Amino acid sequence: MYTSTQPIVYSFQSTSNLSDSLAEYILKAQKESIDKRGRFTIAISGGSLPKTLTALIKKSGVKHIFYADERIVPLDHEDSNHKLAYDTLYSHVPIPSDNIHTIDLSLQNDLEELADAYEKELIREFAQKDSARFPVFDLILLGIGPDGHTASLFPGHELLSENDRWVAFIEDSPKPPPRRVTLTFPVINHAARVAFVATGVGKAQILHDILDTPEIGLPAARVRPVAPGQLVWFVDDPASAEVKLATSDFKL
């Protein structure tokens, strides 16, 4: 049985301060990864994260991006995480399209095959470089939903107990659209660093449930990277109002 790390929760007065500190954190993570292994691998989810990363990626020169989850819709559809990332991020920074690892929608009629194809994308990136049972991302950036879900891992869903696959599909997401693919907990929890971003008073109660009462078992509370992996939350003061663990003392 592996040991997991405890979360560090940083709370900021404004989203601007949060974004600046998140940028510092990612730049440091990138430098350490490149110095140690000569590469930096990152996976992102949707929501507000791509917009937060625009200035950062212009500065850092991140070149390869994977998705923590994606909706099975056309890549230019309003529900697509890739569409959101393109509009808010890729259209503003010079990242070659071949280095943005999207799902293969030609396989959308067979979600198992589509998930397998995305898993093979990960295998091509990681298997020849790492000997671990699961890929080790240098950083995975996640958000949370009002129900405590993260990526496309939802409360009470059978995917919460998936222990073998790197990428899995879901056909009955409680949040539309229903068909999605997602990284599984073993992949997320083998990352060197996982960073959550959550803002706004609407996240206050669910953050309390996730961070102060993890025994409830909400999906986001199950993100606990294998030691010596690091788990950090970047939140604003309205979101952290009910969280006992939160601190304003940001340190790299």
From TrEMBL:
<comment type="similarity">
    <text>Belongs to the glucosamine/galactosamine-6-phosphate isomerase family. 6-phosphogluconolactonase subfamily.</text>
</comment>
<feature type="domain" description="Glucosamine/galactosamine-6-phosphate isomerase">
    <location>
        <begin position="15"/>
        <end position="233"/>
    </location>
</feature>
<dbReference type="InterPro" id="IPR006148">
    <property type="entry name" value="Glc/Gal-6P_isomerase"/>
</dbReference>
<keyword id="KW-0378">Hydrolase</keyword>
<dbReference type="InterPro" id="IPR039104">
    <property type="entry name" value="6PGL"/>
</dbReference>
<comment type="pathway">
    <text>Carbohydrate degradation; pentose phosphate pathway; D-ribulose 5-phosphate from D-glucose 6-phosphate (oxidative stage): step 2/3.</text>
</comment>
<dbReference type="GO" id="GO:0005975">
    <property type="term" value="P:carbohydrate metabolic process"/>
</dbReference>
<dbReference type="GO" id="GO:0017057">
    <property type="term" value="F:6-phosphogluconolactonase activity"/>
</dbReference>
<dbReference type="InterPro" id="IPR037171">
    <property type="entry name" value="NagB/RpiA_transferase-like"/>
</dbReference>
<comment type="function">
    <text>Hydrolysis of 6-phosphogluconolactone to 6-phosphogluconate.</text>
</comment>
<protein>
    <recommendedName>
        <fullName>6-phosphogluconolactonase</fullName>
        <ecNumber>3.1.1.31</ecNumber>
    </recommendedName>
</protein>
<dbReference type="GO" id="GO:0006098">
    <property type="term" value="P:pentose-phosphate shunt"/>
</dbReference>
<dbReference type="Pfam" id="PF01182">
    <property type="entry name" value="Glucosamine_iso"/>
</dbReference>
<dbReference type="InterPro" id="IPR005900">
    <property type="entry name" value="6-phosphogluconolactonase_DevB"/>
</dbReference>
